[in-house]
Amino acid sequence: MAPVISALFLSLYLLFNFVAISSQNDEYDQTTAKTMEAFSGYQIHEPPFQGSFSSLSVDIESLQRQIDELSTFSDTPAPSVTRVLYSEKDVLARRYIKNLMGLSGLSVREDAVGNIFGRWVGSEPELAPVSTGSHIDAIPYSGKYDGVVGVLGAIEAINVLKRLGFKPKRSLEVIMFTSEEPTRFGISCLGSRLLAGSEELTELLKTTVDGQNISFSDAAKLAGYTNNEDLSSVLLKKGSYSAFIELHIEQGPILEEEATSIGVVTAIAAPASIKVDFEGNGGHAGAVLMPKRNDAGLAAAELALAVEKHVLESGSIDTVGTVGILELHPGAINSIPSKSHLEIGIRDIDEKRRNLVIEKIYQSALSISKARGVKLSEFKIVNQDPPALSEDSIIKASESACQELNLSYKKMISRAYHDSLFMARISPMGMIFIPCYKGYSHKPEEFAAPQDVANGVRVLALTLAKLSTS
Ligand code: GLV
Ligand code: MN
Ligand code: MN
Predict the structure, then answer these.
(1) Rounded CA separation 26/13 (Å)
(2) Rounded mean pLDDT, 128-156
(3) 343 C-beta closer than 6 A to ligand 1
(4) Distance 417 CA to ligand 1 centre (A)
(5) Per-residue pLDDT tens for 16-67?
(6) Is the pLDDT of residue 169 over 70?
(7) What ligand 1 atom has the least distance to the C-alpha of 347?
(8) Whole-number average pLDDT of the chain
């Protein structure tokens, strides 16, 4: 018994001594640690990474192959990509991502809506992890880089760090978010919005259906997510991550035009979406004379023009508005539209200004319905999200990564929304942009040069390394 007790005392003595030494001296003393480990019989501290980040090497051939392979999981022919939430192709693509995460040695978990997490456990797993990621769903007839670069690129960033022999202190986690695009259920950033704690959304999803009247719950079940009656398990608490950073193509022309390698995002514009329905009497397109008509299609057309007018009236180049969906019922050349449906997106970096535009659109919808004798049967603001600011410390970490890697960069805002907009609700957030051809996105011509993708992955890897040791 006595030798055991004295060994215990010796261990404790050495342990306290060690703590004292390390608090006095910030520089890690490897010799002391080794001695400590020899005496105590377990690992006391992970030695800090001694290698050099100057040789961060991205396997761009494999990464490009993965981008190309993933694009084949599509419901429309190449070069277009269409990958809609919980479709067969989406399920196959998800399997592809989980497989890659496994090959990179990450421990994989999925939540009840299919957000996928791949974790590289750090030497201090009790600390909040650093996370990165994006989405792989693709709107109809879009391209193969939107979101994908931020998922496959994140897995490759982990590979880069592993090849270098780097050991993270905080765990590093790659997240593939479910349905950033609103294509199927009309809800943008469904996975990250939910994960960031939207209890309102857990309720809304109970009654949400797609265009075919398939409920969210049934669609999720068909994709293998059978446990989705109670979505509260998806919600994460503020502080679950010490940082979140997303790599993405710019989706605009600035970086390419200015020949700048990297965009460091400082803020994400505030998006809002609105659904509008008009109803009229319809009727025969030949027999009903013009003064007798109340044409729901013309009401929609007039409202679309009013959207443009109110957006331009804001006087700011940062206010944008789009009528991306306009449907007429019954949709026959010889029938006056009896119903029309519009979906309108309004975005701005100034939330107040954007909200004023929404109010003006509402007033126009009311006056158009009155003037044309049609019923405004719905004017629903689906989401009206505030903008998000990047965290200073993450901006600085990305900037210094660019400097160390000798890459030109500029600070910029994101006019597109991203899962980062919602991750900012629970975690300090940042984003890294890479140039894309002519700024094209959401169309098949979307392209990012392999060198630009590789640069983005290197900046991401180095930023993750910095954040994981802070
Ligand atoms: C994201 O896809 C967006 O529309 O901004
Ligand atoms: Mn997109
Ligand atoms: Mn995207």
Answers:
(1) 20
(2) 98
(3) no
(4) 5
(5) 333 333 333 333 344 455 555 555 555 555 567 777 887 789 999 999 999 9
(6) yes
(7) 5
(8) 92
Mean pLDDT of 320-338: 98
Of ligand 1's atoms, which has the minimum distance to the CA of residue 442?
2
Query: Please, which residues bridge with residue 434 across strands?
Result: 249
What is the rounded CA–CA span in Å between residue 327 and residue 337? 10
Q: How far apart are CA 309 and CA 261, in angstroms?
A: 36
User: Is the CB of residue 394 less than 8 Å from the CB of residue 267?
Assistant: no
What percent of the chain shows pLDDT beyond 90? 86
- Residues in contact with 238: Cβ distance below 8 Å, sequence separation at least 6, in sequence order: 197, 425, 426, 427
Long-range contacts of the stretch 162-166 (C-beta < 8 A, 24+): 162/104, 162/105, 162/120, 163/57, 164/49, 164/51, 164/53, 164/55, 164/56, 165/49, 165/51, 166/49, 166/51, 166/465
Which ligand ends up closest to the CA of 149?
Answer: 3
C-alpha 387/C-alpha 368 separation (Å) is 30
Question: What gap in Å lies between CA 433 and CA 455, rounded to an integer?
Answer: 10
Residue 198's pLDDT is: 84
Residue 84's pLDDT is what?
Answer: 98
Rounded to two decimals, what is the model's pTM?
A: 0.87
Q: Please state, as a whole number, how many other Cβ atoms lie within 10 Å of the Cβ of residue 69.
A: 14
Report whether 341 contacts 275 (CB < 8 A): yes
- Measured in Å, residue 101 CA sits from the centre of ligand 1 at 25
> Residue 265 corresponds to which tokens in the numbers above?
């995002």
Alpha-carbon distance of 306 to 286, in angstroms, equals: 28
Residue 136 has pLDDT above 80, yes or no: yes
Residue with CA closest to ligand 1 atom 5: 416
**pLDDT tens digits for range 245-255:** 999 999 999 99
Answer whether 416 contacts ligand 1 (Cβ < 6 A): yes
Dihedral sign for Cα 50, 51, 53, 56, please: negative
Q: Pick from 41, 172, 167: which is nearest to 119 by CA?
A: 172
Angle of helix 60-71 versus helix 148-164 axis, rounded to 10 = 150
- Alpha-carbon distance of 400 to 174, in angstroms, equals 22
pLDDT at 53: 85
| Predicted local distance difference test score (pLDDT) of residue 228 | 85
